[in-house]
Amino acid sequence: MTCEPDAPRxxxxxxxxxxxxxxxPFELGIPHRIFGRPRDALGRHLYEVVTCSVRPxxxxxxxxxxxxxxxHGPETLATADTVIVPASYELxxxxxxxxxxxxxxxxxxxxxxxxxxxxxxxxxxxxxxAGFLDGRPATTHWADAERLQRLFPKIDVDPxxxxxxxxxxxxxxxVAAGIDLCLHMVRRDxxxxxxxxxxxxxxxxxxxxxxxxxxxxxxxxxxxxxGTTTARAWALGRLHEPIQLRDMAAQESMSVRTFTRxxxxxxxxxxxxxxxxxxxxxxxxxxxxxxxSVEQVAQDAxxxxxxxxxxxxxxxxxxxxxxxxxxxxxxxxx
Length: 334
Fold this sequence. Notes:
There is one protein chain. With about 325 residues, the chain is α/β, with parallel strands linked by helices. It contains 14 helices and ten strands. It has a six-stranded mixed beta sheet. Strands 3-4 form a two-stranded antiparallel sheet. α1 (about 25-35) runs parallel beside α6. Residues about 215-225 have low confidence and may be disordered.
């Protein structure tokens, strides 16, 4: 009689959030809100989120009129699979001179090789001062990008994007871009179905592409001018069909030129870029949640052919449709 090998013991992915003096409470709460939601089919949390300080357990000052009590010290970093550094307004020499304090350097020394690192807004200064971003692309709040580049010339700073995924190190712009970054990590770990469920429960858009502009000259359209909402809704209902730019413009009774300008002002990308991203998201959803063939998914998402879809998914995700399905169907069915 042969014994079946024991199933691997379930262990949630551990996310440690590093709370520094002067932190922004909103940004500190983002990882807990996003990573605290995902569960598998058995109701088990896919992530465990803990907050730690660079000091022994105790109070940490915020930029508001209250402090928070942190129950974990820096040794917690040694147990983390992912470490996130939210923004702080009191980084001292880290922000002013680009060097770590002894306290912060000692805390980061607990990190294990291979730990995934992420920052929200000015938390990027901590990763930069520790040398984790040398020779890598990174971003931060657009208002701080020039200073970051000047202080750390070895980093390729991009001030125009919401977040950058460079594999084991990810950085984001400020405030709401931290939500986009955390949702992106959930999507990367467990697929669109899990990330979209978190987004619905959090009442935020399920996906804003990292390459979307973080600063749009007219973030709130002039109420006297027509918008492009109707055209976007019209297109989303017809992703399986060929969609021409002139057809989208016609939904708003605009010329193609005016529509294109208005669309970019409202969304931050061109209509063509937006449409491709929606098709990619549709394809991801179908690959995860249905047994449709790759050819059928390509048709339903509006790519026309499996080859076209394969090229777009490879460009956007770095994997083929078959590999993507194999990776994420397991998560959905767990």
